[in-house]
Amino acid sequence: MVEKITVVGAGNVGATTAQRLAEKELARQVVMVDVVDGVPQGKGLDQWESAPIEGFDSRVIGSNDYAASAGSDIVVVTAGIARKPGMSRDDLLNTNAGIVKQVSEQIKATSPNAIVIMVSNPLDVMAYVALKVTGFPRQRVIGMAGVLDTARYRSFLAEALDVSVRDIQAMVLGGHGDTMVPLISYTTVSGIPVTQLLDRATLDAIVDRTRTGGAEIVKYLKTGSAYYAPSAAAVQMCEAIVLDQKRVLPCAAWLDGEYGMRGLFLGVPCKLGKGGIEKILEVELTSAERDALAKSGEAVREPMKVVGL
Ligand code: APR
User: Residue 218 sits in a domain of what CATH number?
Assistant: First the structure.
């Protein structure tokens, strides 16, 4: 367990993340920070009151003030707004970039040694804003997307095969959007290539469903987006860092020549431990996968220009 993990944004993703962190006792203190008066305080108190029942000793608190989060080991950023009717993608981008910029300044001032896990969307660009504003080394600014996208892919495969989710090993790389790259060539069922177990048409349909997995949930919920799987993914990354597990997980990392790209966040296989991203693994890709990853990189660069940092 570490001393303190802060979750910025006490909305659906943030509050569920805080609850999961506390229930796993990953930090002595779990702090939620939000701009809305009373919401982080109320949700924090409510979660802390569940501690005697669930049997955890992580102290959960909420605040509107970053002083409560000072000296955090990890900060998970979930602050932002959802797209509203009539709002263009660029409007959303600029609004959330403004929020993440302000949050990043506070993190830099109050938790200068923290590892930042970005969850706010558009993910790859928000991670870029945090990296630029905090000035932290790239090992300490990590985007959560690949773990979630891979979990969706694995859950669909387990369903199609009627096997345990535990036995599906897979990786989804690239940007967090329509251009993501599920790697069929590295998908196995307890080591058996998935191509031996499912026909191409079924696999292609699962890949498509994975790419639109976020939108599928939004369509059901109507007024919000996914939060159970996103919070589980962010917490798995925290766990790998807190317990120094050296897990190999797909994360959005700042590329500096890896996979032939430089100067952008993109989902790639990373080793996560107490230092954050301790290594980016460069694996062989088929030429189609390599092309798809490059295309995904181009799609991420466009909105980076809009925020103009
Ligand atoms: N500082 C702190 N919190 C903020 C700020 C800010 N400057 N601006 C907004 N918030 C808070 C809101 O008050 C709200 O409580 O961020 C929270 C967002 O919560 P929700 O609207 O419930 O959104 P949620 O579903 O949690 O998604 C948050 O994660 O997965 C991504 O796309 C999603 O970008 C979105 C983010």
Answer: 3.90.110.10
Task: Verify that 69 and 181 share a domain, yes or no.
Answer: no
From the alpha carbon of 79, which atom of ligand 1 is closest?
A: 16
Mean pLDDT across the chain: 96
Residues 6+ apart with CB under 8 A from 159: none
Ligand 1, pocket residues at CB < 6 Å = 8-14, 33-36, 78-80, 82, 99, 102-103, 119-121, 224-225, 227, 230
Which of 35, 63, 65, 100 is the pocket-test mutation for ligand 1 (most atoms within 8 Å of CB)?
35
pLDDT of 142 higher than 80: yes
Bridge partner residues of 182 (DSSP): 172
Determine the average pLDDT of the residues in 258-278: 97
Q: How far is the CA of 162 from the centre of ligand 1 (A)?
A: 36
Question: From ligand 1's centre to the CA of 35, what distance in Å?
Answer: 10
Which residues are annotated as catalytic?
Answer: 176
- pLDDT recorded at residue 88: 76
Confidence bin at 177 (pLDDT 50/70/90) = confident
> C-alpha distances in angstroms, 163 versus 128, 160, 190, 198, 202?
38, 8, 10, 13, 16
Instruction: Looking at the structure, tell me whether residues 182 and 294 fall in a common domain.
Output: yes
pLDDT tens profile 37-88: 999 999 999 999 999 999 999 999 999 999 999 999 999 999 999 777 777 7
Which residue has the least CA distance to atom 2 on ligand 1? 34
**Spatial contact of 191 and 214, defined as CB atoms under 8 Å apart:** no
Residue recorded with tokens 């367990």:
1
